[in-house]
Amino acid sequence: MPVTALVSAKSSGVTTAALALTLASQRASLLAECDPAGGTIRAGFLKSSVTAGYGLYHLAAAERIGTEALANAFASHLWPMDEAGHRKLLPGLTDPTQAASLSRTWPALSEVMHVLAADAGHDVFIDTGRLAFESGRLHAVLTPAPLVQQADLVLLTVRGTEQSLTLARHVIEPLRTELDERGAGADALGLLLIEDGPYRAHQVAEALKTPVLAALPWDPETAAYLTGGGRPPRGYGRSPLLRHARTAAEQLEAASSRRRIQQQYPVRPANPQLAGVLQRLTETARGGPRG
Ligand SMILES: Nc1ncnc2c1ncn2[C@@H]1O[C@H](COP(=O)(O)OP(=O)(O)OP(=O)(O)O)[C@@H](O)[C@H]1O
Ligand SMILES: [Mg+2]
């Protein structure tokens, strides 16, 4: 299954889309909240049920010990978002000042997520937040650059508005160059359209010279629930956002396998040090989080 990184030029619905895709996926799925500006799901959708003792920040210390320690910490910091534990969240940073300590953690964390996707069949969605460039390269602290570079798909999330397209135009070329020169290739890049505003998918694709890989409807009621938590709105499971997210997750999987076939990817070598992560994840799904 693919590792998909969702980015934006400016707040356009990345977190909401990542959450909708993770919850709607037909497979086991993970949402890793890796926005260096801080996570919002802990205080929002999960209504503070997850303490600061859980989440991304704690993985930096584990990575300093070694890959196996990171894999184990990763498994024990996932929060189940359903009873069966098939949908998991790696809660994000509680404070943006924590981001600098993660800079050296991203490459190993990326590898763990790829193992989870390739060997354990998870749909992995990473909220990588807003793009920030410095001298034409992804900023080392303000973005989790290695996660974006190594993702199977990089989805630039845009709304169908003039403002969103203008902002996206400024970042799309540097992003393409980044993926070509330091990442998985510019063909990993696609658009996720949030259907707000007058522009339709073909116009957005044309304007940004990039394919729209999936689209999600404008659905304020469901989005407000995914952003703020509380009681789910009536018919939430059949809401436009969740229904389209289910289709979108399938379209992304198809786009990623097309790309895999075209590129004739070599199979990623299995890393025996990471094998333990799969077992720990099964345990987490059965027993729920500890602590
Ligand atoms: N599909 C949608 N339909 C209606 N409202 C939406 C949709 N997606 C997002 N929103 C709303 O837009 C606002 C911003 O969404 P969200 O927090 O997901 O954006 P973001 O790109 O993650 O922003 P940031 O960069 O600040 O983290 C929220 O109020 C959310 O409820
Ligand atoms: Mg966000």
UniProtKB/TrEMBL annotation:
Record keywords, A-Z: Plasmid
**InterPro entries, from UniProt?**
P-loop_NTPase (IPR027417)
Please give the SUPFAM superfamilies that the UniProt record associates with this protein. P-loop containing nucleoside triphosphate hydrolases (SSF52540)
Q: Where is this region: Disordered?
A: 252-273
Name of the molecule in the record:
Cellulose biosynthesis protein BcsQ
